[in-house]
Amino acid sequence: MKNILFILTIVSILFLGCDGKDRVYKSNTDVLKEHKLLDSFSEDIKYFPEKYNEFKIDTILSNGFTVKIKSYTDMESSYLNEFKADNITHKHFYRDSKATIVVTNNGIVFDKLIDKKTFSEFDNTFSELLKDTNMNGVWINEEKSLLNSNITINVNFCKPETDQCEFFNLIIEKDGKYRIIRIIDEVEKKI
User: For 24-57, what is each residue's pLDDT tens digit?
Assistant: First the structure.
């Protein structure tokens, strides 16, 4: 009986000694830092898009061309927009997009992966222009493609969380050669 009373007394003292009075004057931030949990509560990380996306366009034009476009999310490459608000660090990762374009006209005329690197290799002045952007859309400009003997693909790149976009025409000739023209104020100007 003495042993049980002794053990109960020791356990009671231990519980009374751990009442948290030492943390009363600490802020929540200090407590989280003490337990190394502050980073997990002070960061908001989001990915756009959250999951893999893929879009396909398969078109046969009256001028004899067949155009297949497959645009998809590059899960390995992204643009980071980091900002701080209300003591929380927000990290928004905007995943890049890529597109595979295949143009046929009595055989394959053009088969190429299109991304920011393609535009930068074509004209190195595009590198700085497209640095903080993501490919937003790739589609066939049917009107221009039917009027001319080539294929015109519209491509746009936009800076995330802004209204800033750059528009381009990718013009593919019958022989497979291509050129990229930047569109400024609805008027084509070659840079």
Answer: 667 766 766 666 665 556 788 899 999 999 999 9
Question: Which alpha helices (H) appear in 71-148, and where do they start and end?
Answer: 116-122, 125-129, 142-147
Question: Who contacts 178 (Cβ-Cβ below 8 Å, separation ≥6)?
Answer: 110, 112, 170, 171, 172
pLDDT tens for residues 105-119? Answer: 989 999 999 999 999
Distance CA 3, CA 112 (A): 83
Preceding amide of 49 cis, omega within 30:
yes
C-alpha dist (Å) from residue 8 to 13, 14, 18, 20, 171:
9, 10, 16, 21, 86
CB–CB of 67/101 below 8 Å? yes
Pick the more confident residue, 36 or 71. Answer: 71
SS3 state of residue 37:
coil
